[in-house]
Hints:
Largest sheet: none
Distance between the termini: 33 Å
Strand content: under 5%
Amino acid sequence: MLAHLLAFCETQKQEELHRFRVQVKKIKALLRFSQGSSSAQHLKPLQSIFQQAGKIRGAHIHLHLIEQYQLANAELKNGQEKTEKDETRRFCLRYNVHAKSLQRTEKVIFSNFQDIKNKVIARLYKKHLNKLARSFAQPTDRTANLHNNRKQVKMLLYFHAILPKSLVEKLRLNTSYLDRLQDAIGQWHDIISIAALLEKERFTDKKMLAKLARQSGRLYAAILVLLGDFKKKVAQ
Length: 236
């Protein structure tokens, strides 16, 4: 995290910020999976930095989508460019503060690690997967539901990557399927986000709005196909 944080503030390369956020997500996944709700207190400083970085990342993604869909709205584009620039400057001016906060967090996290038995991990995976299956089946408030469920899927994938081979074989988790699912939800959520931004900015190009709605519909339909027989697909 420190290496990518420094690299971003030196180069302003978005890939470094993305990698920084991925490392934060991995630490959050490890703590939330292993410690549950008690991890919240340890994650507060990390979450604060993550959210500040998210403002920059969000503006960058919006700019990418504006270019991808050729949205002819100079005011919208300029606004996102200003947000990205201003938030980057504000974020990097606090680099030393962020670095010290990460170092303090590291000490706290390591002091609270404890061994977890394989059978406990297996039980936790079963619990989380059953919870996901129930949540995916809920028809209400799908936008927030899918986005939150994606976070849970990524948590399971991040944690799975550090498990011993013997436990991986025992769990028989279809990580390829889960990765396709989270990626599909991510693409759909990006379209939903840019559409919400356009609505907020009173964007009036009806053809473009209709195009985004069609794309959102196609991606959503693909997600529903992936979600069919979730419990069976998630087991190898």
